[in-house]
Design goal:
This protein is mostly beta strands. The chain contains one helix and 17 strands. Mean pLDDT is 85; it is low at 1-23.
């Protein structure tokens, strides 16, 4: 069972044993901030003996989104509309060391959830190269405790998605859902305390995540690119989980009001899928995340 479990986690999170990049590329100065959306370029794999970089396949959307406080990564298979894996939480970065605190993770029951993963961060020809180790746990019957039995290496190269030059940056950050309306004129509603609903906005993309507070179940997520000129906010939806959602591939233009810490947005979208027509109503109020 241990081999099956570790293989599954490796295949999802690109957990790998490998060597540092010695391809001859020149190091570049580390950025002061990692805020933005990054796309996976290449990674190390056990199948190559950990000595050769493997290009990321084009049929999988693999992105990492970072605000000043939070990150999330998404692995989405475009040709069959399936979310393969996802994780996120808070992070720290000091120019050399990048640390992820994993607060939610898919697939469920992964031992990665709750871990603090330390990475070294290098920047090579403008690409972000990070290396770190994640612990592999097993339940020990004799001690009745979960113990560390091994570690697996993560080694990946990321390239930043250029920010949209015309975009207003005032929405960049992490937002928490305060309330919503299911229909026009309907009552104001909110989720129970154990449900977390967050939206991360970078200079080029958005991603929302709905998960329970122990992080072991992600009930929904969506991502895509944005356009925001300071007045009109538009989302180009690239993916929604669970799969088969009518808004996947749609462009949604929102009305709303934004101030420093409060964001109200609304939209009504009619989508035709085959012979069916679906109407979606969105009316939400978000609060900017505040550090505890």
């Amino acid at each position: 069972m241990k081999n099956v479990s570790i293989f599954f986690i490796v295949s999802i999170y690109v957990l790998i044993s490998g060597c540092s990049n010695d391809s001859g590329k020149e190091s570049t100065e580390a950025p002061k901030s990692l805020v933005g959306t990054w796309e996976l370029v290449s990674y190390m794999s056990d199948s190559s003996g950990g000595k050769a970089w493997i290009d990321h396949p084009s049929n999988i959307l693999y992105q990492k989104h970072l605000t000043p406080t939070h990150f999330t990564w998404i692995s989405y298979q475009k040709d069959n509309d399936q979310l393969v894996g996802m994780g996120g939480g808070t992070y720290t970065y000091d120019g050399e060391n990048y640390v992820e605190n994993i607060e939610f993770f898919l697939p469920a029951t992964s031992s990665i959830l709750g871990q603090k993963i330390n990475f070294t961060a290098d920047f090579v020809d403008g690409e972000w190269h990070h290396r770190g180790f994640v612990k592999d746990f097993e339940f020990d019957v004799e001690s009745a405790e979960t113990v560390v039995v091994d570690s697996s290496r993560i080694e990946e190269m990321w390239r930043k998605v250029p920010a949209v030059a015309e975009n207003d940056s005032s929405l960049v950050g992490t937002w928490e859902l305060v309330s919503y309306h299911e229909r026009e004129g309907g009552p104001e509603m909110s989720y129970p305390g154990f449900v977390k609903y967050m939206k991360l906005v970078t200079p080029s993309h958005f991603v929302w995540i709905q998960y329970n507070d122990d992080g072991d179940y992600i009930s929904g997520t969506g991502t895509g690119s944005i356009i925001y000129d300071g007045k009109t906010y538009t989302e180009n939806v690239a993916m929604i989980h669970p799969s088969g959602h009518t808004l996947t591939g749609a462009t949604i233009t929102f009305g709303g009001v934004v101030n420093a810490n409060r964001w109200t947005l609304f939209a009504e979208k009619t989508v035709k899928q085959g012979q069916e027509i679906d109407s979606v109503y969105i009316d939400e109020t978000w609060a900017r995340y505040k550090k505890p």
